[in-house]
Amino acid sequence: MSELPKEMNNEEYQKMIEKLNQELKNNPNLGPMDEAWQFFHQSKVNVKNLIFLEAWKQGINKVGTEFFDIKADTVDAATDKLQLQPNFKFIKEAIGGYSHGKQVLLGLMYSFYNPEDGQKFLEQSNTANFVDALNVLDDEGRKIISQLWMNHSGW
Question: Are the C-beta atoms of residues 41 and 16 closer than 8 Å to each other?
Answer without folding.
Answer: no
